[in-house]
Amino acid sequence: MLQTPSGGARDGTAAADSGLMSIGTVLNALREEFPEVTISKIRFLESEGLIEPQRTPSGYRKFSPEDVERLGHVLRMQRDHYLPLKVIREHLDAMERGEAVVLPVVGRQRDGEAVPEAFEAPTAARIGRAELLAAAEIDERELQEWESYGLIAPLSDGVYDAEAAIVAGLVAELGRFGIEPRHLRVMKAAADREAGLVDQVVAPLKRHRNPQTRAHAEARTKELAGLTVKLHSALVQTALGVRLP
Known about the structure:
Blueprint: H1 13-17, H2 23-31, H3 39-47, E1 54-55, E2 61-62, H4 65-81, H5 85-96, E3 108-110, E4 113-115, E5 126-127, H6 129-136, H7 140-148, E6 160-161, H8 162-175, H9 185-206, H10 211-240
């Protein structure tokens, strides 16, 4: 069960005493397990009917511990199982009825059956084309368009890694705001340039014969990737004159 702090209401002591939380408090409660979650994401899930927080007379959202726990289930099913929102809603309804819910395993194949990643050497989750289409709630034509712009690409054996599923979800969400895949080519080009810069820094370490040095190169790559993502985010926020939560 997701642990949540009590209180946190900013719209009257009665709400605080009843255990209801503001959206900011909910965000802080979720971020330990879901560091990428944002207020916009929570509002989007509400607009899709996944949660129904209470509203104060002045319009502020107030979340119960049950709301936060439900949010945790939603985010977990998206992150770990790449389920579309429609399927997640059906699972939540089944859970509320007390029914057992069996979630699909996203992992590598062994003897024709999906195997959880815990049984494999550390590696990224792999999903098939049909699973990716379902996770992003798109059709084959849309996926082909995204691939034509280089936003998503399958691995050599035709399947996709976990990052492709994340990219697909983000592209789909941006599409709801009218941002089309062709508009995202500039972002893809910028990402490629940033990746090239990181690769230049770690390339000498990757070519080293010492396994420990190569392992250090991988760790350095992850560190630099994280820094470039943070810098990119800060630069975009500065250009727009906004500050995200």
